[in-house]
């Protein structure tokens, strides 16, 4: 069939209109799908796809492996959030926290009254969260074949600031007359604070002990492994990580000697050196979506991560209590 010019013009116009309509429908469909995706991303309590920013954490070297593990897993799901974790010690962390320098402080002991007062003076309110249990572990060199256990009194005799003990023979008759090399965390460490309170009756540690001022427990590990007659103390996770070159010492608090294990720390029979570990969160910082998301992720996942890094998880009900604190 032949078409004249008039018919050809009509067909051309019809084809153009058809293409415009099809194109418009396609664009509308894509826009609708994108809108639906956006609604899906923002429908939860926290839009993790949009999270970004930096979260700075500092404090306890004992809690560091826990927080580092959480930060690593959180980062896999939130690549635009940068989480940095320092180890200035519990006391050092609280100083920075109360100055408003960091969002979260790791702590191997509860906040002290004077630290809480310093925070209050700067207008900083905090949320305290228990995250795991730890057993402060007393260790000697792997080649030490005479220390089978220590009483709390003997520990005091070794480390107390007023002690005159010099050799292992001074601690217990029959032990070698070899000079004791003592290794301890520094004064900013929550581990030191706990040991000072529970073992030293708050009298402080002796001047000739070798102190880790860097608040790095690996320094203490190296000190004890490098001295056949050395002795030190730090968190259970650091012993487990180095148990091939260290010997843990059972502690007798009056009911028989007990060594730190997952079970004895959790049930409290490893006394008096079992303790809870904490993180402290600046309430104001919780207004930042990335901080709130990280805190919620921490409590939701720390139970399963705790065992992986050598600590002891809290009961499930306790984690639910801690999670509820974040909703206030």
UniProtKB/TrEMBL annotation:
Function summary: Involved in the system for phosphate transport across the cytoplasmic membrane.
TM ranges: none
Mode of membrane association: Lipid-anchor
Localization per Swiss-Prot or TrEMBL: Cell membrane
Signal sequence interval, chain numbering: 1-24
Entry keywords, A to Z: Cell membrane, Lipoprotein, Membrane, Palmitate, Phosphate transport, Signal, Transport
First-listed, main subcellular location of the protein, grouped into a coarse class: membrane
Organism domain of life: Bacteria
Protein source organism: Paenibacillus beijingensis
Any matching Pfam family: PBP_like_2
GO biological process: one example: phosphate ion transport
Entry GO terms, CC: plasma membrane
RNA-binding as UniProt keyword: no
MF annotations from Gene Ontology: phosphate ion binding
Subunit structure: The complex is composed of two ATP-binding proteins (PstB), two transmembrane proteins (PstC and PstA) and a solute-binding protein (PstS).
Gene3D superfamilies listed in its UniProt record: Periplasmic binding protein-like II
PBP domain sequence ranges: 46-300
Similarity comment: family membership: Belongs to the PstS family.
Protein name: Phosphate-binding protein
């Amino acid at each position: 069939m032949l078409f004249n010019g008039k018919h050809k013009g009509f067909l051309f116009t019809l084809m153009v209109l058809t293409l415009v309509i099809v194109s418009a429908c396609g664009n509308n469909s894509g826009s609708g799908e994108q809108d639906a995706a956006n609604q899906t991303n923002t429908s939860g309590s926290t839009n993790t796809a949009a999270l970004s920013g930096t979260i700075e954490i500092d404090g306890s070297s004992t809690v560091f492996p826990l927080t580092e593990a959480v930060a690593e897993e959180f980062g896999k799901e939130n690549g635009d959030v940068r989480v940095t974790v320092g180890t200035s010690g519990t006391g050092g962390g609280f100083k920075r926290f109360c100055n408003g320098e960091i969002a979260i402080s790791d702590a191997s002991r509860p906040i002290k009254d004077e630290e809480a007062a310093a925070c209050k003076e700067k207008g900083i309110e905090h949320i305290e969260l228990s995250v795991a249990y730890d057993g402060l572990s007393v260790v000697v060199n792997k080649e030490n074949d005479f220390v089978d256990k220590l009483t709390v009194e003997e520990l005091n005799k070794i480390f107390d600031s007023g002690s005159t003990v010099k050799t292992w023979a001074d601690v217990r008759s029959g032990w070698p007359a070899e000079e004791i090399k003592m290794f301890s965390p520094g004064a900013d460490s929550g581990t030191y604070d706990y040991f000072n309170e529970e073992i030293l009756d708050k009298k402080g540690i002796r001047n000739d002990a070798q102190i880790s001022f860097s608040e790095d427990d690996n320094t203490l590990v190296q000190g004890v492994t490098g001295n056949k007659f050395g002795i030190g103390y730090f968190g259970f996770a650091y012993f487990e990580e180095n148990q091939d070159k260290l010997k843990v010492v059972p502690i007798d608090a009056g009911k028989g000697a007990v060594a730190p294990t997952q079970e004895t720390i959790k049930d409290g029979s490893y006394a008096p050196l079992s303790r809870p570990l904490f993180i402290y969160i600046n309430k104001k910082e919780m207004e930042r979506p990335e901080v709130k998301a990280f805190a919620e992720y921490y409590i939701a996942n720390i139970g399963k991560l705790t065992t992986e890094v050598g600590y002891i998880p809290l009961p499930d009900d306790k984690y639910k209590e801690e999670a509820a604190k974040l909703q206030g």
